[in-house]
Design brief:
The protein is α+β, with helices and mostly antiparallel strands. It has a single domain, classed as Anthranilate synthase (4-Layer Sandwich), CATH 3.60.120.10. The protein is about 30% helix and about 30% strand. Strands 1, 2, 3, 6, 7, 8, 9, 10, 11, 12, 18, 21 and 22 form a 13-stranded antiparallel beta sheet that branches. Strands 4, 5, 13, 14, 15, 16, 17, 19 and 20 form a nine-stranded antiparallel beta sheet that branches. The mean pLDDT is about 90.
Length: about 450
């Protein structure tokens, strides 16, 4: 087999990449991994794809058991190896040069853990548990070098590439000052369960903790609103309010889409180096600078939040140990304070070295879902979540990820996420409950995490 080649075509750099994605988003399988530039909290790269390759393995049905999900992940490995098995690292380094990209929903993790997910809603319309597709070209924007590229693999027809280049070069350099109409909410967001349900679930978790079943459980509630129109307009509004470095817009069927404003990395793999950065501990931002600083310091000094974070650090060290070299796992940062447009967070960083013979998808499979959104110990916490939440999390608390042709992988924890499907917009907010948690404070935290997102949509589109 000949060594594969990449073609790198320069296109005009846009500080706000939404104008570039405008040229692609109507294509099949369009997706944007959004680093939230030009916001101060943004990351370095934007990645955009469309026009997926045929033949990528389809994920199992929502009711599938662990064996089916393991088999599908093996099929993805085989697909990746067949198409890109001898791709060398890119020079200059790029995060993604084509490959696999999509999302894996929380319920796939439940299946892998052998946990049935009961559903007590009389009608429950769920999005696909996973969507992962193969791509032979992508657009990469590097905000550090202020460079934009169309990255295409050998085999992409010349006429197709020429059409892409024309469209991308003609994209506006600045977004319009106001969004055109084309999306609307039919009513305000409403919780699927009421506050009394939350308190009862909280008390049940406390009973489990005091009985020694678990140390921490992440409890979430869901909010829904009827909607119509193009969710791309909703996403553009949300990213102006809550920009985050692991955001994503992923097109699903018709006008359905996943809108993700996540600040949290799940797993990164570069060469053999693995990194995960769990978030545990949250305080709302305050427009008053002095109050905002006090909120941040309160979080930084919180014994409860630090203990909660440490539990998840220990859990993730164990998860990484399934695929990393013994002795290679280390905690490089503990309880670091990071601030985003709507909240402050405590973030830790854990690194390790992938063992020989282990694959990026082995790492994802054996660590999924992320411990920061389950609790500890993971299996028991997930059983309790399934018992109490009684409706699927779908993409929420799953992961948006890519596996590049050259073996690089990166992924997020899909928090601060909304699903637009069949005329309904669904959003979730949750938080970790430990022995010294207070029900009212924990309930308020679920609102703090997504309240500004929902309010922004209601103000703009209701």
């Amino acid at each position: 087999m000949t060594t594969p080649r990449l073609q790198l075509d320069e296109i005009p750099y846009r500080e706000d990449a939404s104008t570039l994605f405008e040229t692609l988003r109507q294509r099949p399988g369009a997706a944007w991994l959004d680093s939230a530039q030009p916001a101060a909290s943004g990351g370095r790269y934007d990645i955009m794809v469309a026009d997926p390759m045929p033949g990528c393995p389809r994920p199992p049905a929502a009711t599938a058991q662990a064996a089916a999900w393991r088999s599908w992940l093996e099929d993805l490995k085989a697909f990746h190896s067949h198409h890109w098995g001898n791709y060398p690292p890119t020079d200059p380094p790029l995060p993604f040069c084509g490959g696999l990209l999509g999302y894996l929903g929380y319920e796939a993790g439940s299946a892998l853990e052998g946990i049935a997910v009961p559903c007590q809603d009389p009608v429950e319309v769920a999005a696909p548990v996973a969507q992962v597709q193969g791509y032979r070209w992508c657009v990469v924007q590097d905000h550090l070098l202020r460079r934009a590229l169309l990255v295409s693999q050998s085999g992409l027809p010349a006429s197709e590439k020429a059409g892409l280049l024309r469209a991308l070069q003609a994209a506006p350099t600045q977004p319009p000052p106001a969004l055109a109409p084309g999306f609307a909410l039919q009513r305000r967001f409403e919780p699927t369960r009421n506050r009394q349900w939350y308190r009862q679930a909280f008390e049940r978790i406390q009973d489990y903790i005091h009985a020694g079943d678990c140390y921490q459980v992440n409890l979430a509630q869901r909010f829904t609103a009827a909607c119509e129109g193009d969710p791309w307009l909703a996403y553009q509004t949300l990213r102006r309010v809550a920009a985050a470095p692991f955001s994503a817009f992923i097109s699903l069927d018709q006008q359905d889409a996943l809108l993700c404003l996540s600040p949290e990395r799940f797993l990164s793999l570069q060469g053999h180096q693995v990194e995960t950065r769990p978030i545990k501990g949250t305080r709302p931002r305050n427009p008053d600078a002095a109050e905002d600083l006090r909120s941040a310091q309160s979080l930084k000094n919180s014994t409860k939040d630090r203990a909660e974070n440490l539990m998840i650090v220990d859990l993730l060290r164990n998860d990484l140990g399934r695929n990393c070299l013994p002795g290679s796992i280390r905690v490089d940062a503990l309880f670091a304070l990071e601030s985003y447009p709507t909240v402050h967070h405590l973030v830790s960083t854990i690194r390790g070295e992938l063992a020989p013979g282990r694959h990026a998808l082995d790492l994802l499979r054996d660590s999924f879902p992320g411990g920061s959104i389950t609790g500890a110990p993971k299996h028991r916490a997930m059983q309790i979540i399934a018992e109490l939440e009684a409706c699927p999390r779908e993409a929420y608390c799953g992961s948006v990820f890519y596996l590049s042709a050259d073996g690089r992988m990166d992924s997020n924890i899909a928090i601060r996420s909304l699903l637009c499907q069949d005329g309904e917009l669904r959003c979730w907010g949750g938080g970790g409950i430990v022995a010294d948690s207070q029900a009212d404070a924990e309930y308020q935290e679920t609102l703090d995490k997504v309240g500004r997102l929902l309010a922004a949509l209601e103000e703009r589109f209701l």
